């Protein structure tokens, strides 16, 4: 038995940088962020981001934008903080899907006349939870960022969304163009299958996976 071969293989594994996949899902009513280690040699469980600011936690965060004085150029509050600070009859931006695919989503955000591209940039810019986590990983790990989008969106709408997301996402500035997108049904399929590895599959098995979200089914 050639023991030296095994030692070399182990050395190569140790030298391989750890890689995390971070996926961001902009839902109509809520958004969520999950991460997983993708090159650990065996399947890893996904971890949901739960810290969205001081004293604000949850598996998902409300899709709400609130601007001071009701305009769209002053200070912006997002998610739990916006929900907590808003009052009855106040004009806020909620229940919207970034507004970047007009052929599928012709109506604007509730209570909003804001340009869709600006709304998406605001939300994508408020990622303190991701930024804090990234600052702890950046020296020792490689990150891959991915956006999940509705399957029926056109290629143009997907690219527009990706372009809006590129600048605020963490990572090496020279690799911004590597931000990828994934259709929501495909993401749901990968998540479901990764949690079914222990039940045993056989040729011919059929599965029905339903992603019953707040805006699209």
TrEMBL record:
Gene3D superfamilies in UniProt: 3.30.420.40
Taxonomy, superkingdom: Eukaryota
Name of the protein in its database record: Putative hsp70 protein
Organism: Metarhizium acridum (strain CQMa 102)
């Amino acid at each position: 038995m050639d023991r030296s071969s095994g030692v070399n293989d182990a050395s190569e594994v140790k030298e391989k940088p750890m890689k995390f996949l971070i996926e961001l899902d902009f839902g109509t009513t809520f958004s969520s962020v999950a991460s997983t280690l993708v090159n650990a040699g065996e399947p890893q469980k996904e971890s949901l981001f739960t810290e969205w600011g001081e004293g604000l936690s949850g598996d998902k965060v409300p899709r709400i934008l609130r601007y001071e004085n009701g305009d769209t150029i002053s200070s912006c509050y997002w998610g739990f903080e916006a929900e907590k600070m808003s009052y009855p009859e106040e004009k806020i931006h909620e229940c919207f899907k970034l507004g970047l695919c007009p052929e599928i989503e012709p109506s604007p955000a509730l209570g909003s006349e804001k340009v869709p591209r600006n709304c998406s940039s605001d939300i994508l810019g408020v990622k303190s939870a991701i930024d804090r986590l990234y600052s702890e990983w950046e020296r020792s790990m490689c990150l891959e960022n991915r956006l999940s989008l509705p399957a029926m969106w056109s290629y143009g709408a997907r690219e527009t969304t990706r372009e809006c997301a590129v600048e605020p996402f963490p990572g090496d500035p020279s690799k911004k163009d590597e931000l990828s997108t994934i259709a929501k049904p495909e993401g749901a399929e990968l998540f479901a299958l990764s949690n079914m590895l222990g039940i045993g599959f056989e040729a011919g098995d059929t599965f029905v996976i339903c992603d019953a979200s707040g805006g699209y089914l």
